[in-house]
Amino acid sequence: MTPAFPPPLSHAFLAAARRPPRSCPICFDDVVGSKCVLLDCSHAFCAECFSTHCRMHTLEGSVESVRCPDPACRVQVPPHVLSKVLTQVRASRET
Predict the structure, then answer these.
(1) How far apart are the first and last CA of the chain?
(2) 33-68 in b/e burial notation, b at 16+ Cβ within 10 A?
(3) How many Cβ atoms sit within 10 Å of the Cβ of residue 90?
(4) Model pLDDT for residues 10-43, shown as the tens digit of each residue
(5) Beta bridge partners of 76
(6) What 3-state DSSP class applies to 87?
(7) How far is 3 from 10, CA to CA, in rounded Å?
């Protein structure tokens, strides 16, 4: 019987894993790059805090006005980022 090897890691995963941890400005936890959401405005948040932020807007019916949670920034979150985050939230609930 041949030993099972894990699948090769993607370049994006390896690049994210090499990044130093970032401090989430919402929960103040240090999170590694692979568990971070980096917005176009260069602000980064842990995936859990950012997905909570997006879910809150979805539940309140204001999904079209989701903005960067940083109070000094407030840049609108692009639809493709919002879609990806909400899809991941939905998938995690189904498992």
Answers:
(1) 31
(2) beebbebeeebbbbbbbbbbbbeebeeeeebeebbb
(3) 10
(4) 444 445 556 678 889 999 999 887 788 888 898 9
(5) 67
(6) helix
(7) 21
Residue 17: which residues within 8 A CB-CB, separation 6 or more?
Answer: 32, 33, 34
Rounded distance, CA 18 to CA 67, Å? 28
Q: How far is CA 87 from CA 51, 54, 77, 81, 82, in A?
A: 10, 11, 15, 10, 8
Q: 3-class DSSP state for residue 34?
A: helix
Neighbours of 82 (CB within 10 A): 18
Q: What does the block give as tokens for 30?
A: 């240090």
Report d(CA 53, CA 65) in Å as an integer. Answer: 12
Rounded to 5°, the CA angle 34-37-38 comes to: 105
pLDDT at 90: 66
